[in-house]
Amino acid sequence: MAQQTPENTRPAKSGSGSDLGFETDLFKAADKLRGSLEPSDYKHVALGLIFLKYLSEAFEAQHALLQQEEFADAEDPEEYLAHNVFWVPPAARWSHLQAHARQPEITFEDVATGRPRKGDIGNLIDNAMEAIERENARVLKDVLFKEYGRAQYDKTMLGELIDLFSNIDMGGSTSTARDRLGRAYEYFISQFAGAEGRRGGEFYTPRSVVQTLVEMLEPHAGRVYDPCCGSGGMFVQSEKFIAAHAHRRKDGSPGRPNIAIYGQERTHTTWRLCRMNLAVRGIDADVRWNNEGSFLRNEFAQTRFDFILANPPFNISDWWQPQLEGDARWAYGTPPQGNANFAWLQHILYHLAPRGTAGVVLANGSMSSQQSGEGEIRKAMIEADQVDCMVALPGQLFYSTQIPACLWLLARDKSANGHRDRRGEILFIDARKLGHLVDRTRRELSDDEIALIARTYHRWRSRPETLAEAGLEPYVDDPGFCRAASLDEVRRHGHVLTPGRYVGAADVEDDGVSFEERFGALRAKLAEQFQAGRELEGRIEAALVGGRSLG
């Protein structure tokens, strides 16, 4: 067995690292208020109000700062734009909503007409959302939920939600307050995904899966793309990575690496969640919506990206249209019309820059399937040396499906980006035994386990001098967990990429008992069981002949 070093020793299953305090309590309190509303409807109600609270929190903090400046105009929208803060008009400020949250009838100025009108708290919230969109049309046009005035929404519930969110203990600095609201927004999305089950998986990828991809790929600079971006989790985690690894300027002040974010989403309500999620985090991105999707209407057809992170829907069968025949993206073979897995992989490879890398979440079947030409497409990708690493994930990670999943790490040029030349080699990681249950049906990878997977990949692809400078030991295979295999070995396995075929079994700790002794003991035990079986057969035969009970 390879000698274990501190860098590749597997960690104990610790907690997830998620700092769940006020978010958990807040969601439980908010969930009690939804009454008979389905989570799929209620999520827009709750998330919209959290978003409005976030905008107001940031605005009021900047407003207070501007009031202290001698020559600043606290009511000038340009003053806020300069500080990357949304301008919030008086009709949309949280204090205005809070003051009227419990009133059965409210008179207010209609943003659309400029005339006074009467309504309830639902109408007042819709008016606030309309005012925000009009003042920040470049970023928020058609993004916000504006249906609070619908009869099905209990106005008492809306007032109670406003009171609940008003009492969030934001504490600390402005940045701390914004971060806490961002965490609350992301946590609410995850909980609504869990409540919606399969439908929830359409807009949310579990945090630990996103974080694993981000930590492995390290998208620190360049263009980042997700062709099926859901509620934007990949982007939020990428931004967290950048913040955690921010460069410093010569004067010691924080510097921001050059990164640009692009995405596409076909479900309009999910696109809206994404735009709000990014805005809450202060992330500027080019995220586009159309109801045809990335295959039929590729919004970034001519663009190539340095990093691509994606969790496409697994095994979708209704994706094909005749106009996709002969598409330039199918460089490794036309994908089967009954399964889009290899359409996604080829779409992503097509969009990678010459030195780009990608991480894709797919169903395990993609690693071994031979039907409908999938095996030939996989073979062509492997022979073109586009596959860098394969990771088998533990089960029960996803809200939407119990189908086991894996990670494909793709690289356009395995000799580039300052790493060692890995051409003709693929790393296999079997992480199926990692993870811990967070409830009865779902598992999660801990931060230590995510770090183990990412560190294993980084040590394998790094140059020896890079490892030496960082004080890290060189990569070594770990039986049962990871192994680097040559292209020839992958060929001998029929171009199947299942890590279990390559990593082998973990060595069993030596207990001092020889093989001969162990085998002899097992043979003696088997003989005893055979003898007991024969005795039982005799008793049964005797009982049947004499008509007696076996007891």
Domains counted in the coordinates: how many?
Answer: 3
CATH topology of the largest domain: Rossmann fold
Radius of gyration: 28 Å
| Adjacency order of strands in the biggest sheet | 5-4-3-6-7-9-8-10-13
**Strand percentage:** 5-15%
The CATH superfamily of the largest domain is: Vaccinia Virus protein VP39
Q: Count of DSSP helices?
A: 19
CATH architecture classification of the largest domain: 3-Layer(aba) Sandwich
Per DSSP E runs of 2 or more residues, the count of β-strands stands at 13
Q: Which blocks of ≥5 consecutive residues have pLDDT under 50?
A: 1-20, 248-253, 508-514
| Structural class by SSE content | alpha/beta
| Largest sheet descriptor | 9 strands, mixed
Shape summary = globular
Q: Compute the average pLDDT.
A: 85
Separation, N- and C-terminal Cα atoms = 53 Å
Look at the structure and give the CATH class of the largest domain.
Alpha Beta
**Helix content class:** 40-55%
